[in-house]
């Protein structure tokens, strides 16, 4: 029975070694909400993920699995309400940049770079 737990023990819950603050996959000067993520030292949040829960599991030296579970939402004219879960891999490139890859699109990483600890909309490009 102990041997069946060993694979689970090899993955450690951890936080990526990146700076806390705002990250953008586009411009830092005038970023749209859709390209912004905020890292508070423990979890990533975006424009529509304030009520979501992130679980980060370290998979390798610079690779983390991010499982985001969000409460059920009903969109206009949508069918039944269901909770949403999204699995992505986060690869740390430096303390100020990382890439996110959706499980369903492994060949389409989205790269993010640090924009600062606050957004005054006057940052760098």
Q: What distance separates the N and C termini?
A: 54 Å
Task: Sum up the overall morphology in one term.
Answer: globular
- Please report which band the strand proportion falls in: under 5%, 5-15%, 15-25%, 25-35%, 35-45% or over 45%: 35-45%
With strands numbered from the N-terminus, the spatial order across the biggest sheet is 1-5-6-7-8-9-2-3-4
Helix content: under 10%
Number of beta-strand segments: 9
Query: Helix count?
Result: 1
Order of helices and strands: HEEEEEEEEE
Mean pLDDT over the residues: 81
Could you say which structural class the secondary elements and strand pairing correspond to? mainly beta
Q: Would you summarize the structure shown here?
A:
It contains one helix and nine strands, in the order αβββββββββ. It has 125 residues and is mainly β. A nine-stranded antiparallel sheet has the order 1-5-6-7-8-9-2-3-4, with no helix packed on it.
Write up this protein.
The structure is a single chain. This protein is 6% helix and 44% strand. The chain is globular and about 40 Å long. It has a 9-stranded antiparallel sheet, with no helix packed on it. It has one helix at residues 2-9, and strands at residues 12-13, 21-24, 36-39, 44-45, 53-58, 63-73, 82-94, 97-102, 110-116. The chain has 125 residues and is mainly beta. The longest helix is centred in the N-terminal third of the chain and has 8 residues, at 2-9. The chain is built from 1 helix and 9 strands. Mean pLDDT is 81; it is low at 1-10.
Essential attributes:
mainly beta; nine-stranded antiparallel β-sheet; 125 residues; disordered N terminus
């Amino acid at each position: 029975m102990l041997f069946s737990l060993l694979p689970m023990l090899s993955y450690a819950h951890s936080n990526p070694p990146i700076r806390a603050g705002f990250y953008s996959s586009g411009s830092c000067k005038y970023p749209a909400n859709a390209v912004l993520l905020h890292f508070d030292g423990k979890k990533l949040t975006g424009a529509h993920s304030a009520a979501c829960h992130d679980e980060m599991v370290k998979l390798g030296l610079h690779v983390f699995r991010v499982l985001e579970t969000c409460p059920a939402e009903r969109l206009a004219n949508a069918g039944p309400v269901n909770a949403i879960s999204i699995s992505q891999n986060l690869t740390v490139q430096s303390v100020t940049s990382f890439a996110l890859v959706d499980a369903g699109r492994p060949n389409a990483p989205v790269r993010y770079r640090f924009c600062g600890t606050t957004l005054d909309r006057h940052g760098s490009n």
